[in-house]
Amino acid sequence: MKHLIRISAVAAALALTVPASAQQKTTERGSMVGVGVGLSNGSAFETGDRSNLGFGGTLLFVPLNIAPNLRVEPFIGWARSDIDAIPPGGAGLSNPGEASDFTLGAGVFFVQPVAAQLQMYAGGRLGLQWQSFKTVGAAPDKFSRRNTLLAAVGGAEYLPIPRVAIGAELMIGYVGFGDTEFKDGATGQTFEGAGGSGSVTQGTIFARLYLF
Q: Which of 93, 145, 183, 192 could serve as 178's disulfide partner, Cβ 3.0–4.6 Å?
């Protein structure tokens, strides 16, 4: 709910910056290029925990409507978290340290208006995700890997005024884990672990501003 309130506030602020004449022009010819921000329920990985596998964190979109019903949308995402010390008896929890992930990719969608101010879209996203984790201490251990994410996506966006859209999407994806590289902080030795695969569902809420 807090994320939805933040997105609504951003959309309202953006709406105030759009002149009425520009809004009318956008309504007549359609919007081609925009920028957007999305908040998702994914997050950085923690060593020993693969429950958060999505595009996670805050995402920046660049929607490019190259045809009336075709959208190409590059995106970039980044997330970081500090993991507190494990309490006594906390077996199975991740080690304390710093975790982060960086994602770069693009999506392709078929867009279909369903009402005067509402449109739906469906398609897919492909992204590369670089993840890292570093434990705390004078000689920290370091983990890193690169994953590939391929997802089917469906969503909807509502335009309360021309140029400004708020909406949500659901993603069902496949994750191919890269080999995990581990560096022992005490000895400086580097080891490599096997990769794997997984699946994920993820929701994202967003606001988009169409520039022209």
A: 145
The answer to whether 17 touches 163, Cβ cutoff 8 Å, is no
Question: What distance, in Å, lies between the first and last C-alpha atoms of the chain?
Answer: 31
Residue span of the structural domain in which 46 resides: 2-15+34-81+94-210
Cα 37 to Cα 34, 51, 75, distances in angstroms: 11, 24, 9
**121 part of a folded domain:** yes
The DSSP H or E segment spanning 2 is: helix 2-16
Kindly report, residue by residue over 42-101, the tens digit of the pLDDT: 544 444 444 456 676 788 999 999 998 999 999 998 877 777 765 555 444 456 788 888
Residue 89 lies in a domain: no
pLDDT given for residue 134 in this prediction: 87
Residue 170 CA to residue 56 CA, distance in Å, equals 13
Instruction: Report the alpha-carbon distance of residue 105 to residue 126 in Å, rounded.
Output: 6
